[in-house]
């Protein structure tokens, strides 16, 4: 009997050792919760990745809650697998699994007896990213305002293709032309500048949008190869207010999307943003304001 118990114990020890050395899907793990939605964390993580000298790009999984990041250090290639698990309507658990693709077994052998280089590097990177995310959250604010009707408007616009991160820069690039042509032709403005997203690829963060100036329609609108005209018709929308740098106003897109998913509301992933401030005037970005809308799906949009 004692021999059988000893053999079972030995098998368990050997099985655990085999799992630890060869089968466990990570070498190190970090886990914490933050008061932010997965979309905000996803975009901040991608921006942080671009800032690293070891940047090899970061790949998104099936949705924005799973990302794979590769970071080379000497003869090691660290793979970071990020999981963003939303816990409440405002908090997310971040779980990071780290594996050294070249030296995994040696790391696991050394880990019980000393702090490995992989663990030190992981701690540094986690601390760096947490600081980056905290700073971002302190400098942006999204307030959900409910459902309303967005009115009809006629506008002059320039079609733009960019990434989400480049959105504000492309607006600033096209604003002088649009302003100049309309002013020179005495076109009367009729509201705040806005963008109308027409296509949003959430896997690679690319967008197509119309950069628009609301105007009074007339029979003598200027003919320019880059400027087009259209009417936006009234539609029901979810509305949020965004405060912060317009580079990251897409955080409100994710907040509206998240609200719709949690409440079973069908929406079109074509955000609309109205801008109250001119970034060229500077000032505290947290005082900048944008109204952000996500259109509700209608029977016509489902056809």
Total strand segments: 13
Strand order of the largest sheet: 6-11-13-12-8-9-7-10
Structural class: alpha+beta
> CATH H-level name of the largest domain... which superfamily?
Regulatory factor, effector binding domain
CATH architecture term of the largest domain: Alpha-Beta Barrel
Q: Biggest β-sheet, characterized?
A: 8 strands, antiparallel
User: At the first level of CATH, what is the class of the largest domain?
Assistant: Alpha Beta
Helical fraction equals: 25-40%
Descriptive overview:
The protein is of the alpha+beta class. It has two domains: 24-138, 2-Layer Sandwich (Alpha-D-Glucose-1,6-Bisphosphate, Chain A, domain 4), CATH 3.30.530.20; 142-302, Multidrug-efflux Transporter 1 Regulator Bmrr, Chain A. Helix content is 33%, strand content 33%. It has helices at residues 2-23, 38-51, 104-110, 117-138, 167-184, 251-262, 299-302, and strands at 28-34, 58-60, 66-73, 76-86, 92-100, 141-150, 153-163, 194-201, 206-214, 228-232, 235-243, 272-275, 289-295. The strands form two sheets. It has an eight-stranded antiparallel sheet with strand order 6-11-13-12-8-9-7-10. A five-stranded antiparallel sheet has the order 1-5-4-3-2, covered by helices on one side. Helix 2 crosses helix 4 (117-138). It is elongated, with a radius of gyration of 25 Å. The relative contact order is 0.13. Residues 7-23 have low confidence and may be disordered.
């Amino acid at each position: 009997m004692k021999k059988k118990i000893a053999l079972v114990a030995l098998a368990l020890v050997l099985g655990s050792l085999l799992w630890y050395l060869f089968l466990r899907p990570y070498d190190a793990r970090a886990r914490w919760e933050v008061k932010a939605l997965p979309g905000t964390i996803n975009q901040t993580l991608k921006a942080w990745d671009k800032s690293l000298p070891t940047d090899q790009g970061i790949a998104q999984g099936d949705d924005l809650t799973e990302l794979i990041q590769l970071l080379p250090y000497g003869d090691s290639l660290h793979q970071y697998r990020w999981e963003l698990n939303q816990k409440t309507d405002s908090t997310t658990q971040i779980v990071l699994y780290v594996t050294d693709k070249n030296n995994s077994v040696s790391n696991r052998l050394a880990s019980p007896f000393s702090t490995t280089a992989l663990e030190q590097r992981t701690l540094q990177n986690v601390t760096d990213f947490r600081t980056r995310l905290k700073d971002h959250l302190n400098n942006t604010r999204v307030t959900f305002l409910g459902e309303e009707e967005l009115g009809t408007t006629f506008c002059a616009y320039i079609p733009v293709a960019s990434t989400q991160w480049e959105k504000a820069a492309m607006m600033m690039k096209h604003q002088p032309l649009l302003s100049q042509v309309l002013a020179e032709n005495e076109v009367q403005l009729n509201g705040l500048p806005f963008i109308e997203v027409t296509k949003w690829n959430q896997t690679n963060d690319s967008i197509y949008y119309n950069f628009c100036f609301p105007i009074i329609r007339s029979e003598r609108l200027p003919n320019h190869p880059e400027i087009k005209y259209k009417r936006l018709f009234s539609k029901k929308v979810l509305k949020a207010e965004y405060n912060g740098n317009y580079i990251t106003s897409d955080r409100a897109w994710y907040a509206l999307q998240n609200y719709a998913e949690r409440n079973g509301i069908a929406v079109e992933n074509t955000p609309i943003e109205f801008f109250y401030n001119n970034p060229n005037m500077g000032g505290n970005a947290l005082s900048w304001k944008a109204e952000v809308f996500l259109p509700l799906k209608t029977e016509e949009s489902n056809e």
